[in-house]
# Entry
Amino acid sequence: MSDDPRKTILERPMSRFQVLAVAVTVGLNALDGFDVLAISFASPGIAAEWGIERGALGVVLAMELFGMAVGSMTIGGIADRIGRRPTILACLAVMACGMFLCTMATGILSLSIFRVLTGLGIGGMLAAINAVAAEFANGRRRNLAVSIMAIGYPVGAVIGGTIAAVLLQHFTWRAVFLFGAIVSACFIPLVLWRVPESIHFLTKRQPAGALDRINRTLRRMGHPVSTGLPAATDEEKSQSVMDIFRPALLPITAAVTAAYFLHVTTFYFMLKWIPKIVADMGFTAAEAASTLVWANVGGAAGGAVLGLLTQRFALKPLTIGVLVVSSVAVTVFGYSSANLSEIAILCAISGFFTNAGIVGLYAIVAQSFPTHVRATGTGFVVGLGRGGSALAPIIAGYLFQAGFVLPTVAMVMACGSILGAAVLLTLRSRPKADPASL
# Structure
């Protein structure tokens, strides 16, 4: 029995209930991967049905990223105020509505609005599930739990791309979004069943009935119940979600945001340009799409391996090393010859290290921010990082347009990862004196 249930969570072995809660966050993150690749598969059908040019189509594709950026930066703060669980449920409802409305779109304007709406839900959910994965894990498995959560993205991209390809063989592009709406809606009862409110959040905020809710969750986890809750100190009472911009946390916020933004430019250069680069080598659209699938397969493997390595090696130097190798791998990809097998292998290797870097950065973010701003900090980092995701294909496009060849463009875009590694060298760990600081 303990007066601080956070200590119970941190010190005791993870139960099956906790593992399943983390598994749900993997599925939730996979919705992001599904949505990103599904719109890529659906875009030819959209362009054909409405007869729109590539420029207008590019606007539609960007709307989702814009919505995600806004959702991450704004809704993350809400998750730190009202709780992780209600935020996730609300975001799922928004995502399901947004995807369903996409099936009823009649033109570029309405589709763009519905894509922004879907992006808002996804962005807000990403901020909340990073906090959930960290707070349902014990101290020993926290980095692994966040890493496993993060690999949901490439897993969702692979599965989503495969399902979208099958649906488009029999139905119009609208079926892709209908499927996404149904899956998003199905996660609502799953979250209600398997993801109670975070004990770390309830202990920190202490809303009415907090102890009863905490003890119900502890019983479901198979842990001893708590006899009471620690009294909030004057310092804790003065805490707010704006603390990420105050002197104690501002250097951390700046460092992890810059590192994530820089690496994401390299990551999304690969995801957005691989199909076009391969097609320009003379391969079919289907063959080009298959190389993107291999990049995501490699990404899932890279995230899993990095998660396991965090159990034996320090997270920060491990992530720095991965980012350096990511830069090398993307540069080497730039020297690909017109051999589809070779391209697929290089894409898988690049995907392995670029996504492992993303996974490592997610874990660093979860580790860097305390409970009361964990979702806010994650949302801010991921939100600005989406700016990097939008910037990457633009920079690469202008480099190609200016006449630079693939090896040069790849080398320039690979600099994002190594610059991100350099920024991480300046990051100082946040002290963790007691459970209240976690």
